[in-house]
Amino acid sequence: MTKLSVVLGEYAHGKPLLDGDVAIDGYEVNPVEVKPVIGAYRRMIRDLEFDVCELAPTSYLMALQAGVRLTAIPVFLNRRFHHADVQCGTASGIRFPGDLKGKRIGVRAYTVTTGVWVRGILRDEYGLDIDSVTWVVDDDDHIEGRAPSNVERVTDGRSLGEHLRSGDIDAAFSGNAGTGRAGAPRAGWAAPAEQPAGEDGPYPLFPDHDVLAADWFLRTGIYPLHSVIAVRSELVEADPSLPTKLYAAFAESKKRQVAADPEWTALPRLAKQAKQVDGDPIPYGITSNDASLRALVKFSRDQGLLDADFDGEPAALFAAGDYPDA
Predict the structure, then answer these.
(1) What is the pLDDT of residues 123-169, one digit of tens each?
(2) Around Cβ 97, how many Cβ atoms within 10 Å?
(3) Where do the record's region annotations for Disordered lie (predicted)?
(4) Quick one: pLDDT band at residue 189, thresholds 50, 70, 90?
């Protein structure tokens, strides 16, 4: 039986597969733990270190364009809305999206998927000229060479959170894309507690972010992707049935978790998102994710991360296989 090294983040809906409770016909899963899992993205893209690995969707698209020997299946283990992600400095004077023009905004790296989604929303929904913003980063891109000239690197060793509190930047992304971590995404990176919003702390660009996110979803059908499963291309070439087998195993793993925990108590954020989308908070498949896939490709093109002639048809993004919505 062929062993597959598999790296996933910590998801209850992926655990049955990692634990071996869900089988992949002809294969044995060898789980590899990488914390934070973001550290595995770079190792997979640059060194093809694992057989199967969760990746950030934008990183996968860029790797596909660059000819990296990876392909993917339409399994998206993580989803998030992003209207809450921009936090403004106390003295920044920012009240509306248009106030971000000419400002300095912190983000871990220019190509992080959170950044792509937020810039796309600010550009398409609110008319912000994203090229007028200076994007301040403190980490490398997984695939380098696509960041525009209005990206500036932090050089003093301070975290983005420290830069925001001192007023050296006007706003920043929260969480792993910005102020929720410090250091490079490898073993031992720090995850400091973010300063709570309030009179003395950063405040959200969109105080009513949940309402805006729900409205955006209802109008566009876009439900931002934050995870995709990539496979080394040589394995698919050796066994063209592998993508279908993998997809079926991930779908079964999710099915078992939902049966055991239909209210998503293991991850309350997904329970909340299930209400926002009035349905499955992590739909798998190509058809059910058509609008989201097309939007991510569009935003990535608009921001110079993908070439204009990149084939953005959703079916072209994945290995040939059988992927019923699941």
Answers:
(1) 999 999 999 999 999 999 999 899 999 999 998 988 899 999 999 99
(2) 17
(3) 175-200
(4) low
Q: Which of 199, 200, 180 is nearest to 191 (CA)?
A: 180
Mean pLDDT of the residues in the chain: 93
Which amino acid, residue 141? D
Residues 6+ away with beta carbon under 8 Å from 195: 161, 165, 179, 201, 202
The reply to whether 86-220 shares the fold of 2-79+223-317 is: yes
What's the rounded Cα separation, in Å, for the pair 160 and 163? 5
Q: How confident is residue 193, by pLDDT bands cut at 50, 70 and 90?
A: very low
* Nearest CA among 2, 20, 19, 5 for reference residue 53: 5
86-220 — its CATH code?
Answer: 3.40.190
CATH number of 2-79+223-317: 3.40.190.10
Question: Do residues 282 and 229 lie in contact, with contact meaning Cβ atoms separated by under 8 Å?
Answer: no
Two structure tokens written together for 69: 């020997």
